[in-house]
Amino acid sequence: MPGRLCLVGAGKMGGALLKGWLGAGVAPERLGVVEPSARAAEALLPEPALAVVETVDALGWTEPPAAVIFAVKPQVMDDVLPAYRRWSGGKTVFLSIAAGRTLASLAKHLGADAAIVRAMPNIPAQVGRAVTVACANSAVNPEARALASSLLQAIGEVEWIEQESWLDAVTALSGSGPAYLFLFAECLARAGAEAGLPKALAERLARATVAGGGELIRTSPVSVEDLRRDVTSPGGTTEAALEVLMGAGGLQSLLTRAVEAARRRARELAE
């Protein structure tokens, strides 16, 4: 990985990226973290060789970094981006994981000649199991694209798309998707408790069931539809439950409406 990396924002996603890079062998001396939050910065202090500063000027870098990674909330991007325009037009690639912020809106602050990658990872990045979808503007050359891929692969799988408009749906599906899964686990545990199980046991069973089912999806070569059919005996208990979940107004209808609501919100954030 050539040159230095500048990470802007060290919250949950930024921290996951940083953990992934360090775990992949990136030397702390090659990293600079811009994080104005004292609490977030304090969490990074155990790594003594890591430069953690409040502003980009405090880094004191005279040479442009290989990449600048923006891991801040989309609502503050307009205030954050202008300070990094100084590195546009050279070999620096700008990688943004801010939901809803389009390539055009980023270029508005960074410059028309800036090499920009827009990406949407998800929270399993914290355990190295993210799936990230990325797209790039025309200024990103093959070397910059490869660098962006390597940075994102430190937290999981990477998919590239050419049609930026798909990222709204990606945000709604995989970006927000873990929250849907967590809610499912909550509801499953609550249903178990209402069926008569002690609350703590119902929660443990729900967590283990969702985690185990997810691992089976990840490792099995068969489709999720076939996995569902394999566990559904005709006339059995699972079939009785699925008749409710797959009925009119059931799980598919709810998820379709939920994903559409998230997609609309992602588009609104881009306006």
Summarize the structure.
Helices cover 47% and strands 14% of the residues.
Reconstruct the topology from this structure.
Elements lengths: L4 E4 L3 H12 L7 E4 L3 H7 L6 E3 L13 E4 L6 H4 L12 E4 L6 H8 L4 E6 L9 E7 L5 H12 L2 E5 L5 H10 L1 H18 L4 H21 L4 H7 L6 H9 L5 H20 L1
Parallel strand pairs: 1-2, 1-4, 2-3, 4-5, 5-6, 7-8
Antiparallel strand pairs: 6-7
Helix pairs in contact: 6-11, 7-8
Low-confidence stretches: none
Mean of all residue-level pLDDT scores: 93
Globally, the shape reads elongated
Largest beta sheet: strand ordering: 3-2-1-4-5-6-7-8
Please provide a written account of the structure.
The model has no long low-confidence stretch (mean pLDDT 93). Helix 6 (166-175) packs across helix 11 and helix 7 (177-194) packs across helix 8 (199-219). The chain has helices spanning 12-23, 38-44, 77-80, 103-110, 142-153, 166-175, 177-194, 199-219, 224-230, 237-245, 251-270; strands at 5-8, 31-34, 51-53, 67-70, 93-96, 115-120, 130-136, 156-160. An eight-stranded mixed β-sheet has the order 3-2-1-4-5-6-7-8, sandwiched between helices. It is of the alpha/beta class and 271 residues long. It is elongated and about 70 Å long. The protein is 47% helix and 14% strand.
Could you name the key traits of this structure?
single chain; 271 residues; alpha/beta; eight-stranded mixed beta sheet; 8 strands
